Amino acid sequence: MSEEMENKVEEDENEEEGSDVNEWWKGVLGGLFMFALAGFLYWYFTDFENSHDRSRRMNALIAALYNLGGKNLACGVVAGIGAILVGWGFWDFTKSRKK
């Protein structure tokens, strides 16, 4: 009975390792989404700066970053997160290719 339990534990460990093999693309797609969001925010802030309307609603964190450093800081932080996610996804991809 103990051999069956050991085999079951080994199978569970193998399944857990195998589930991460095909997860790399989620990081890459998440990063690409963040790059697209950074581009949208840059357009949004440029439109905001060029319009006469001074009352727009936006996320408090994005507004704080914009007030602190302008559109370049707000978009740079979002693009930086995107770069980290893309790098993480490619790192997972290279790690899964070695297995």
Could you outline the blueprint of secondary structure elements for this entry?
Blueprint lengths: L1 H18 L4 H27 L9 H39 L1
Profile the largest sheet: none
Question: What is the general shape?
Answer: elongated
Helix content: over 70%
Query: Count of helical segments?
Result: 3
Strand content: under 5%
Query: How is the quaternary structure best described?
Result: single chain
**How many structural domains in the coordinates?**
1
Structural class: mainly alpha
Total strands: 0
Succession of helices and strands: HHH
Q: Name the average pLDDT.
A: 84
> In angstroms, what separates the terminal alpha carbons?
31 Å
Radius of gyration, taken over Cα atoms and rounded to an integer in Å: 22 Å
| Low-confidence segments | none
Characterize this entry briefly.
The chain is an all-alpha fold and 99 residues long. The chain contains three helices and no strands. The longest helix is centred in the last third of the chain and has 39 residues, at 60-98.
Please give a structural write-up:
The chain has one domain (22-98). It is 85% helix and 0% strand. The chain contains 3 helices and no strands. The radius of gyration is 22 Å and the shape is elongated.
